[in-house]
Amino acid sequence: MSWLSWFYALVVTLLALYGFNLLLLVGLASLAWLRSRPAPALPKGVTEADWPTVLVQLPLFNERYVVERLIDAAAALDYPAEKLLVQVLDDSTDDTAALARARVIYHRLHGRPVVYVHRLDRAGYKAGALAYGLTRAPRAQSELVAVFDADFIPPPDFLRRLVPAFFGDERLGLAQGRWEHLNPDQNWLTRAEALALDSFFSIEQMARSHSGLFFNFNGSAGVWRRAAIEDAGGWQSDTLAEDLDLSYRAQLKGWRLSYWPLVSAPAELTSSIMAFKRQQFRWAKGSFQVLRKLGSSLIAAPIPLFRKLQALLHLSGYLPHPLMVLSVLLSLPVVALHTQNPLNWGIFGLAGVGLPLAALLSQTVLRKDWRQRLVYYPLLVLVGIGLAVTNTHALWETFFGRTQEFLRTPKFAAAQQRGNTYALPADWTTWAELILALYAFATGLLAVERMPGLAPFLFIYTLGFGYTAILGFWQSGGVQSFEWQTLGK
User: Which residue has the higher pLDDT, 454 or 401?
Assistant: First the structure.
């Protein structure tokens, strides 16, 4: 048996490891849902005078389509006015700034505690804006800090439902709510995204938080204790995942984080594959950067081994995508050389059961129409495979590339992608996806006779890479829109 076969087996085994771990998380999440509470309980005898002050931060950059509805929703939060301060942290360079100022003036005239903060530069990007906002808010006005991204519409009772988690628990650093969706049925891509986010919040976040494992603030729809932010070192911009970075630094400092799945805030799903790839690139690269930054501290931390291993698997959660690309590239020489196969494809297939089980559990606990939504599960599989090129690029950039600018995900408020001023063109990753689709298809045809156990996986890769590539070209207006550029530029 050649070294190539053993190396290929190692790659596939690592992929299977993440699959089996997802099965474990599905089991832990199932137990957590059985004993979950709908919302934090408010202690008896609490009056409005006892509620902590809350600073609501709204970080913005060029969000003309969604800025007004966000500010309106924040101004409508049902919380004691004397205990609330809303900061619009606007770094915009387009007409978003004028729209934001106008809405702030409107709400201030109507007695709402909303202020507008505009920076002259984007130093530190979102992390920099959040940190700057804290310097402008006295501690007496910001015992707790809630954050909502531009595409969210927090319901009026969001704070009243989540803030009670902090009563009687001085070491609670964060209460995280679940992301709901404003446009899950806009197109096939948003249906797949809705399934993916539901699985993440209902399985991974649920399992990790209720089992005492490390988990993370999701960048929006969460409430921090200001003391926890400051004790952990504050918002830092040396990664693209400032939320994940702060979460792990806080937990390493001994702060506890909690997750409340039945307290939710809806947000817009990206309707464009190029915008979705930009978002996933930022999340993947940010995760790898946090792993590089905090991995050694995590390994050295005096915490149980199982908790430590789960944290490392969590921070490296995007690694399966580079492993997918590597497995596809290795498959042709493995099949062509007809080397002896050390793998049991049945066991490898079992590792993939976690994905559909996660989707099934998440939909049954969240959705009355779960049967209709699960029809779109194959789309989630195809998009998940197609993202492998983008997230492999993220891994390369983290360890071998240059520093990446924080590139926001465009939000359109249901505006059409074509002709939209925030629309993104196809880039080189779209061509790479198309090439990998053809490569996997040719290898699959060869594997039908030489290694039939591998052929089905190769044809699934073909569909995934091909679907993402075709969708990218179609939504970007065709091949004529292509620009040979770094992702997101």
Answer: 454
For 87, residues 6+ apart whose C-beta sits below 8 A from its C-beta are 55, 56, 57, 58, 115, 117, 133, 136, 137
Residue 392 has pLDDT above 60, yes or no: yes
pLDDT for the residue numbered 488? 38
Distance CA 150, CA 57 (A): 10
Taking only the tens place, the pLDDT of each residue in 356-379 is: 999 999 999 999 999 999 999 999
Percent of the chain with pLDDT over 90: 79
Residues marked active site are found at 91, 243
Q: Show the tokens assigned to 168.
A: 């009687």
The radius of gyration of the chain from alpha carbons, rounded to an integer in Å, stands at 23
C-alpha to C-alpha distance for 246 and 215, rounded to whole angstroms? 11
Does residue 34 belong to any structural domain of this protein?
no
Backbone phi, psi, residue 33, to 5°? -65, -30
Three-class SS state of 371: helix
Q: How far apart are CA 61 and CA 206, in angstroms?
A: 31
The domain that contains 164 carries what CATH number?
A: 3.90.550.10
Asked if 201 and 322 sit in the same domain, the reply is: no
Q: Which residues of 174-198 are buried (b: 16+ CB within 10 A; e: fewer)?
A: bbbbbbbbbbbebbebbbbbbbbbb
* Single pTM value for the model: 0.92
Q: Kindly give, in sequence order, each residue whose CB lies less than 8 Å from that of residue 48, ignoring residues fewer than 6 positions away.
A: 80, 83
> How many structural domains are present in the chain?
2
Domain membership flag for residue 284: no
Tell me: do 351 and 398 sit in the same domain.
yes
Q: How far apart are the first and last CA of the chain?
A: 45
Indicate whether 22 belongs to any domain: yes
For residues 94-112, average pLDDT: 96
Same domain? 75 vs 194: yes
Quick: pLDDT tens for 190-207.
Answer: 999 999 999 999 999 999
Q: Which residues form the domain of 335?
A: 3-29+317-481
436 three-state secondary structure: helix
Give the model's pLDDT for residue 345.
59
Give the residue among 118, 139, 103, 111 at the shortest CA–CA distance from 61. 118
457, β-bridge pairs: none
Residue 18 lies in a domain: yes
